Amino acid sequence: MNSVKILHCADVHIGAAESSLGTLAESRRAETLITFEKIISLAKEQNVDILLIAGDLFNSNNIEKSFVDRVFECMASIPDVKIVYASGNHDPLNADSPFKKYSLPSNLYVIDTKDHCIEFKDLNTRVYGKSFKEVYMQGEPVFSIKPDTSFINLMCIHGELRSDLGSDYNSITSDFIKSSGMDYIALGHVHKRTEVSKLGDSFIAYCGCPEGQGFDELGEKGIYLGEISKDNCSLEFVPVCKRMHLCENVDISGLATSNEIAEQILNYLKEKYPDTYADNLYKIILVGSIDDGVRLSLAEITTRLNDSVYFAKLRDKTEIKLDYETLSKENTLKGVFVKNMLTKIESAKENEKEQLLYALNIGIKAFSGEVHYDEA
User: Fold this and answer.
1) pTM to 2 decimals?
2) Strand runs (DSSP E) across the chain, as ranges?
3) What is the pLDDT of residues 105-119, one digit of tens each?
């Protein structure tokens, strides 16, 4: 066989819960499993030879058996696909691991905690790797099993790409990659996808997580799918996430009521995400200038939005239209505050002025009792 068709996924974190979602947290938790089911279906539809899962399939080893049963049932449903799993730091391969405690599907191959090579003669392919045994994996990434160049050589491994050995999560250095002799290294651990790149003779990539778990994991999430041969790597990113986490700035200048503001936000989202706007999770940052008399009710605006989208939370970064020079001449506590802040802003360095202007704006809102605990 001159090439092998693979699907590379990692960091599914089945069982993870976004506690900040409140009543939605449990249903969102179930969606990580649903997304894995989608990955399995994709592997079947695309006639994949090998499904590589580079760690953290489960969010922890303390996972309900019902989740494990469903995962293994899904794997068994594609018997013609060889599934190779390397455990990560969230689900290390120890006595508590579901991969140790329960019967495994016959097409699932779990990489050992010592240097390991799995050979598929019918595919002329070998898969190398090393699983986490505990939460941390330290030390020099030296692989003792040398590749056979007559095979297509793949590696499935969870770890952190870096220039030194200082990681607690399996340092993977460029020197290790260049000397590995691998045709492709399927990486897990980093939730942000990287483009497929080449170091030495080895192609490498993080596919990222298939489902974001917070607003530090924005945008489309998915897997890599394609063919690997001895001299070529042809992988395509395929989005599989049920929902995206998105952060958007929405200008509400000139608006005064919660209804108007909610409509402005929804129109913005519908225009930018016409097919999926209702399905996503949004962090909306309100920007622009509002009149001094306008009192924003973030709670009301959020309630209106959540009638139309899956989840939204708001942050107020608007500015109040004020004549600060006139206000600074008032013989009031607010006037004294504005005068002192304007003096600081005038003498500040350019890179400090934006932060001081924000502090001035927050201070003005505080005099009206509008500041929320997480705005400062």
Assistant:
1) 0.86
2) 3-9, 50-53, 82-85, 108-110, 116-120, 125-130, 152-158, 160-161, 171-172, 184-188, 197-199, 202-206, 222-229, 233-239, 245-251, 281-287, 289-291, 311-316, 319-321
3) 999 999 999 999 999
Q: How far apart are alpha carbons 309 and 301 in whole angstroms?
A: 12
Non-local CB neighbours of 261 within 8 Å, separated by 6+ positions: 252, 255, 286, 296, 301
The token duo for 209 is 């997580």
From the candidate CATH numbers 1.20.1580.10, 1.10.150.20, 3.60.21.10, 3.90.1200.10, the one assigned to the domain spanning 3-239: 3.60.21.10
Q: H helices within the chain, ranges in order?
A: 25-45, 65-76, 98-101, 174-178, 258-272, 298-305, 324-327, 333-347, 350-367
Locate tokens 């200008």: which residue?
Answer: 251
Tell me how far apart the alpha carbons of residues 40 and 287 are, in angstroms, rounded to a whole number: 42
Domain with CATH 3.60.21.10 in the chain: 3-239
Separation CA 29–CA 357 (nearest Å): 40
3-class secondary structure, 88: coil
How would residue 140 be classed by pLDDT, with cut points 50, 70 and 90?
low
Cβ 253 vs Cβ 35: under 8 Å: no
Q: What is the pLDDT of residues 310-334, one digit of tens each?
A: 999 999 988 877 666 777 777 888 7
